[in-house]
Structure formats: C-alpha cells, structure tokens
C-alpha cells in the first residue's frame, strides 16, 4: 500500500538497502584480503643451507691498466690471494678439489636467437690455477688458508666495456669440491682499463673546393671521458681580391659535436648456424652524440693579411651524463670509435677595395663540414707499466755503474779502470786521542811569542813601551789576523828569520785561535782590543 501511495520513497529506500549490502560485502572482502596479505607478508623467505666453506679473493696488485696501444702494450700484472674460511659447525672440512679460472666473457645484447644462451654469451678461459694436488682437511679459525696466484694480462686484450650492443667482462671464478660432494662457487669481477699516454698535438688540414678556403685544426692526440680538451682552428683563404673589388667569406656560426660509433658482429651458435649460413654473422651498428655545442662569436677575423684568416680557439668535452665509452677494437667483433664533427656556416660579402666598409651581402652561403678522429682513453696518470716498476734481477745487475758517452764522440764511452801507475804519495795526518768520537775536535794550545815592531830588540821595546792602543792591536793581531794583515802591520814569520824563537806555519793561522793569558792588559782593555780587531777586519775586507 505504501509503495502505491508513496512510490518515490519506496524507490529511495530500496537504493539505500542495496548500497548497504555492497558496503558489507566489500568490508568482508577487504578483511579477507588484508588477512591474506598479512599471512603472505609474515611468511619469511626460505634460506638455503649454509655452505661449509667460504671463498674470497684478496687483490694485491694495483689497478689493471694496459698502457699504450694494443700493438705495443706490455700488459698488466695481476696478483692476489684466494682465501678459504671454514664455517662448518664441526670445525673442519675436507676439500678434494680447489681451483680457480680467469675468464673473459662477451655478452651480446642483440644475438641471432634471443633466447639461446650459446648465441648471447661466449666465454674464453685465459688461465687456470689448481691449488690442491690431493685432498686436504681444513680447520676453522684461527687457522688461515690463503693461496697466492698471479697472471700477466697480454697487451692486446680489450678493456672492460659495456655498450648497448655488447659487453666485455673479466672474472675470477673459483670452485671448491668437498668430501660430501657439495660444490662451492665464488666469482670476483675484474676491471681492465687501457690508457694511452699523451703525446704531441696533431694538426690536420681540410680544403673546400671549388673555393680557396682551407682550415687547419690542431687537436690533442688523446682525450678523456672526463674533462675538456682544446681545439684550435685557422680558416684561411677567406678574401679573394681583384683589381677593384674583393669578395669575402664571413663566419656566422660554428657548431661541433662528438659522435660515438658502435659496431658489433654477432655470430650464431652451432645449433642456429643454418639461419645465417656457414661463415656468416649479423652486424649491428649504433651511433649517438656524446657531446655538442655551438658558438656565434668568439673568433678573430683578419681581412688585411694576404688571403685573410679567421682564428678560433674553444674547449670541447664529452658529456659525462651520456656515459661515453673509451675506444675499443676487439677481435671478438666489438668496435667503438669517436669522431669530432665541425660545421662552419660562412656568408659571402662584396666590397670595393677603396672603401672596405661598404659591405654588400651577396646572399650566398656555404656549410663547411669537417670530421676528425678522436682517441678516447682513460687517464694514464704516471704512465709507468709493470715492467718499468720492477727492479732488475740479480743476474742482470752489472758489477760496475754503466758507462757514460761523450757528447762530441757518441761512439766512445767513459769507463772505470783500475790504477796501475806508481804509488801515490800520502802524508799521514796527526791523530789525536778522543774518548768519545762524537765530541768536537780538540785543538792544541800554543804560547804566542810576539816579535817587536820596527826591528827593535826585546829590551828596547820594554824600555820604550808603545802607546796603549798600539799595544792592544799588536797583542791581538798576532793570533787572529790573517798573514796578509800581519805583513802590513810589521809582523813577519819568525820561522823565516835567523833569530826567531817561535815557529808558526800556515796551519796555525787556519786553526782555532788559542786562549792567551794577557798579563799586561786589564779586562776592559781586552774588550776594547776585540773591538779594534773587528774594525781592522772590516777595513781590510
């Protein structure tokens, strides 16, 4: 009856009942889903059994860097130790085999058959070490088990590379076989780099017929993924003079970019060789820009010289965000190269020779495009390879130093020979006793004997004493002044005279002055005499 009297109200109530039922159903579903999620999240992942032996590698050698190009590099030396740790609860484990391989793996990103492991991955074993010749029992710590290994990477091997077409990796792969038949594996990646030392800059010339334009560009021999490098360019032949008029080429815009070209050859495995044919492979190429820029100013234009010149210098660099790759040329088929592409937009102008300011554009323009090869390599640092760091072995060391060559006679050398002449005269020096060899040398004390001035005898000199200042100078100059000053002052070596009582030599003047007892002088006189000697030395000097 209500539905007949109030049809709209009945419809609204029916809608509300339906919505309430839906909410209840959704809540039940939500509760069930939440419970199921909780159960899944609470369930911990299952862990496999813990191996009884743990292997690790300790690399002792410096970073593996191949110095120089692949044709002239001496390689890189790898040395390290393989460490074995016993973690078995019993405290010991018996190992039947323990070996390690050095592998070079090539992974193709675009193989002949996508799902074929043999088509997409190739592995080459460089060397192998077998550390056990018979089964051996290893015990838990504190026992330490380390096995040394070393290998010389040949210089022709490619460096570690990861590109969009393929990747080259080097890896240490160790394997241990226990007495229970369990196999424990361990792998350690190795990064091999190539660095070419820098050399003199290289200059390249490009001509653009039918015009007289010629560009000379100077570039460094090698560039690096990080950092900038200078580029110098001289554009000549921009002016063509005639009898009354001349035609010019004016530079309007310069653009440069660095292109990276990748090329990979993908052969097929033995199973899928029929798809390509015998001896055939797929070749994939990829080109991308790893650095670019442009400039509309910053060069110098000189129209007055013969032919005219435009000078320009700028810095170019690789974009680190693009992750540029160093140059690689692998026998496996991977090749990476870089090119510097420069584009110059020049416009033609016309002007009379009498008034060069009256310039009239002709409307003609040209795009000059140049391309140069770039050698991208890692930084060489000191550039010292392993063979130059190693000292010579005992058998290679000569008995004497090497001979030196004359500058004027390249064929002749200086050598060291034994002396075979007469016996050399040798005068033994006086040896003085010293209890402690670290003490300073001991000098002998001498009693000075002064010779009177002007040839006077000792008695006359005492009867007619000299003035005070002269007596001071006489007493001090005999011990501290040089022989030349003594000769100027009237002193002479009494050893040369007939009646001298003192015997002085040249060594007596060079020795440390002895301590004299000045009986006739007071203490203040000795101080004054010292001052007078200093003045005399200053005047003589």
UniProtKB/TrEMBL annotation:
Domain of life (superkingdom): Eukaryota
Listed Basic and acidic residues bias regions: 10-26, 275-285, 433-448
Region described as Disordered: 1-54, 263-285, 433-515
Secretion signal span: none
Gene3D superfamilies xref list: 2.60.40.640
GO CC list: cytosol; plasma membrane
One of the record's GO molecular function terms: ubiquitin protein ligase binding
InterPro entries xrefs: Arrestin-like_C, Arrestin_domain-protein, LDB19_N
UniProt record, GO biological process: ubiquitin-dependent endocytosis
Segments forming domain LDB19 N-terminal: 98-276
Name of the molecule in the record: Putative arrestin (Or s-antigen) n-terminal domain protein
């Amino acid at each position: 009856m209500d539905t007949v009297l109030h049809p709209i109200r009945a419809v609204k109530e029916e809608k509300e009942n339906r919505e309430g039922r839906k909410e209840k159903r959704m809540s039940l579903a939500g509760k069930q889903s939440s419970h199921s999620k909780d159960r899944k999240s609470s369930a911990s992942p299952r862990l496999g059994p813990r191996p009884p032996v743990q292997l690790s590698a300790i690399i002792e050698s410096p970073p593996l860097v191949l110095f120089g190009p692949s044709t002239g590099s001496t390689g890189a030396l790898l040395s390290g130790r393989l460490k074995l740790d016993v973690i078995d609860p019993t405290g010991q484990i018996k190992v039947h085999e323990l070996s390690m391989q050095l592998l070079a793996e090539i992974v193709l990103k675009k193989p002949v058959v996508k799902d074929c492991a043999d088509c997409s991955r190739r592995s080459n074993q460089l060397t192998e070490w077998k550390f056990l010749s018979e089964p051996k029992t290893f015990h838990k710590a504190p026992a330490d088990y380390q096995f040394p290994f070393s290998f010389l990477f040949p210089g022709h091997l490619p460096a570690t590379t990861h590109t969009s077409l393929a990747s080259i990796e080097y890896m240490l792969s160790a394997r241990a076989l226990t007495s229970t038949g369990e196999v424990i594996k361990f792998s350690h990646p190795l990064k091999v780099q190539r660095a070419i030392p820098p050399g003199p800059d290289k200059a390249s010339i490009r001509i653009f017929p039918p015009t007289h334009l010629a560009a000379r560009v100077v570039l460094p021999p090698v560039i690096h993924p990080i950092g900038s490098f200078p580029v110098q360019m001289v554009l000549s032949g921009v002016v063509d003079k005639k009898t009354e008029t001349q035609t010019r080429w004016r530079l309007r815009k310069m653009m440069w970019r660095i292109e990276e070209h990748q090329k990979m050859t993908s052969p097929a495995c033995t199973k899928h060789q029929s798809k390509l044919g015998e001896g055939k492979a797929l070749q994939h190429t990829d080109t991308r820009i790893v650095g670019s820029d442009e400039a509309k100013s910053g060069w110098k234009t000189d129209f007055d010289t013969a032919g005219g010149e435009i000078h320009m210098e700028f810095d170019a660099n690789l974009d680190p965000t693009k992750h540029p790759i160093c140059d690689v040329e692998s026998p496996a088929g991977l090749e990476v190269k870089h090119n510097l592409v420069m584009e110059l937009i020049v416009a033609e102008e016309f002007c009379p020779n009498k008034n060069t300011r009256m310039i009239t554009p002709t409307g003609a323009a040209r795009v000059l495009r140049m391309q140069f090869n770039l050698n991208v390599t890692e930084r060489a640092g000191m550039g010292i390879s392993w063979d130059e760091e190693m000292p010579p072995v005992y058998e290679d060391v000569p008995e004497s130093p090497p001979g030196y060559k004359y500058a004027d006679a390249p064929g002749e050398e200086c050598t060291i020979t034994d002396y075979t002449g007469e016996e050399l005269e040798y005068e033994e020096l006086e040896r003085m006793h010293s209890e402690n060899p670290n003490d300073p040398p001991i000098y002998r004390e001498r009693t000075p004997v002064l010779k009177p001035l002007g040839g006077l005898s000792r008695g006359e000199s005492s009867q007619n004493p000299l003035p005070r200042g002269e007596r001071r100078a006489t007493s001090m100059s005999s011990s501290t002044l040089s022989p030349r000053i003594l000769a100027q002052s009237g002193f002479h070596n009494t050893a040369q005279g007939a009646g001298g009582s003192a015997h002085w030599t040249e060594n007596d003047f060079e020795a440390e002055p002895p301590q004299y007892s000045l009986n006739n002088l007071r203490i203040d006189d000795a101080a004054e005499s010292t001052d007078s000697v200093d003045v005399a030395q200053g005047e003589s000097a």
